Amino acid sequence: MSEKDYTVPALQKGLKILEMFGSDCHRLTQSEMADAFGVSATSLYRIIQTLSSMGYLNKVGKNTYELGSQVVSRGFSYLASREVVEICAPYITRLRDRTSLSSHLAIREGTDVIYVFRALALQRLSVNVPVGTRFPCHTTAIGRALLIGMSPTELEELYKGQRLDGYPEPAPQTLPDLIELCAQERAQGWSIHFSDYSTAIAVPIRNYSGEVIAAINVSGSDPMMKREGVQERSIRALQDTANDIMKQLGSEG
């Protein structure tokens, strides 16, 4: 007697559709998806509509789709940011080795920062944020580094109707506070945040058009970060690493 098959074909197809996207394939038509399965386009219609309604696919043209925001926010960050991760990973690991501090890569989704890569520090006392972790951007250095590229008007639009209080200081408690802090950090080129007996410093990563597409940080315990010269050396190492990454992305840094 053969073993029963409890798989769900429609779910399998939906997941395989998401797997079709990657660093070398950002958009697909409904026909292209159907060709990959060897079926008609109409047979995938309901699956594609379901993925779209749930935010896993985003329609960008006539029967053309790209990955939606839910792919990132639900832990599939590597699909949407695979190229950035692949480029950044060796540089972030080198940054960890250079500073002996934990180093992370993050992207922004709405008002949240999502960690997509980390290089763990080797010290017993270290700060390590797991891949897939989300925080409000305004409460972390790496999150605010992602906001550095936005104008005050863009920040006002992004945070329209949202409260910023309820998070411990030194996180900004109001939108004017956030706009002022972002202006200061934009001018100096880096962000810093203190929390839970630890300190993190972060810088943005820009693409060839100058758009902030990611951010990197180093973080460590306060006893280590408060040693003489550590913060200054960390900032230089972050800026050097960011420039090397941006050259790979076609940016002048």
Q: Which CATH architecture of the largest domain would you pick?
A: 2-Layer Sandwich
Task: Give the topology string: H per helix, E per strand.
Answer: HEHHEEHHHEEEHHHEEEHH
Percentage beta strand: 15-25%
Structural class: alpha+beta
- State Rg: 21 Å
How many domains make up the coordinates?
2
Number of strands: 9
Distance between the termini: 64 Å
What is the CATH H-level superfamily of the largest domain? GAF domain
Q: What would you call the shape?
A: globular
In what order do the strands lie side by side in the largest sheet?
6-5-4-9-8-7
Mean pLDDT: 88
Q: What's the total helix number? A: 11
Low-confidence stretches: none
What is the strand and helix layout of this fold?
Blueprint: H1 9-19, E1 27-29, H2 30-37, H3 45-53, E2 57-61, E3 64-67, H4 69-73, H5 77-80, H6 82-99, E4 102-109, E5 112-119, E6 134-136, H7 141-147, H8 152-158, H9 175-188, E7 191-195, E8 198-206, E9 212-221, H10 222-225, H11 230-248
Antiparallel strand pairs: 1-3, 2-3, 4-5, 4-9, 5-6, 7-8, 8-9
